[in-house]
Amino acid sequence: MPKFIFGKKIVVYIFLLMCLTWGIYAVSAHLIALNTQIAYQNDLQAQKEKAHDAELKKRKAAWKALKKNIALEILRFKGTSGIIIKDLDKDWELYHNKTRLFKSASLVKIPIMCAYFYAAAEHKVDLQQKIQLKRSDITSGSGILKGMPIGTSYTLDNLIRIMVTESDNTASNILINNLGFNTLNGYFKKLGLKDTNLSRKMMDFKARKRGVENYSSPRDMALLLQKVYDNKLVSPSVSEKVLRLLAGQKINDRIPRRLPKGTVIAHKTGLEQGACHDVGIVFTDRGNFLICALTEHPYQHAYLPKQFIAKVAALAYHYYDNF
Fold it and tell me: In terms of pTM, does the model score above 0.90?
């Protein structure tokens, strides 16, 4: 064999051997990098899980402390209370007298609102229907319509807004007259309420003296608020509308009283002689919670029950500071 051919083959073999060596090196380097990346990701995941477990442990401890502090406030309160507080991220719930019946006062305006939106979805009412304010509609107590000119027209939609944001008794009674007790109570059942009834109008003292009363429970109020939060009250758009109306509440001397200014709170109050309530959803940077606080009390004025509700709400809010 000529020497130049032999030499050429040697060069080819050396070249192939070098290619193979570099290929093995490249594959090895890639595998090493891949293994390093996998190890890093596994380590990162382990760190995240460890941090999550640590935070969950702190959160459970904070929840346990919250239960204890709420129980102490309940013991100190010189009246009867029904409480539900729910961590909406973890679905944890603490409660006291959750199924007990309380005079609903203006809390009944929440299911009345929900019933109207349910009826509108079924095309049983037109929310743009207009109703003229009559002298016989004027009702004492909270609200702005009692000072409006007789003959002024309002859509059902506007009456619902005024009923909720102003807690307007005149608007409530117009809406009750329009659909009727039986229809409204029927929608209460459709909404899944077990403890809520509508048996008299707002400020009907004669019916109250006869023992005719409207009742509800922390459980029913929490059910409606949960449906709203989950976008399951009739429809997502209705749920969002209800949330906006509750967030527009103008009576803010209970749940919001001790919370930081600017905190978003979608809630509704209730107040009559011997009864003081507030129920709602509180939105925070660390998490959101549902709170229902219903009370019966022996006081001439509601200052102390309002303070009790404010303290309970503040404890729930500051639970999020501890993890």
Answer: no
Contact in structure between 163 and 246 (CB atoms under 8 Å): no
What backbone phi and psi angles, to 5 degrees, belong to 155? -75, 160
In DSSP terms, 87 is beta-bridged to: 92, 289
Name the packing angle between helices 3-76 and 303-318 (round to 10°).
Answer: 160
Give 58-100+219-226+249-323's CATH code, choosing from 3.30.1330.10, 3.10.450.50, 3.40.190.10, 3.40.710.10.
3.40.710.10
**Tens digits of per-residue pLDDT, 164-201?**
999 999 999 999 999 999 999 999 999 999 999 999 99
The stretches of 180-288 forming alpha helices (DSSP H) are: 181-190, 205-209, 218-229, 236-247
Q: Which residues lie below 8 Å from residue 172, measured CB to CB, with a gap of 6+?
A: 106, 108, 109, 112, 139, 163, 201, 202
Residues in the chain: 323
End-to-end CA distance of the chain: 84
**206 SS3 class:** helix
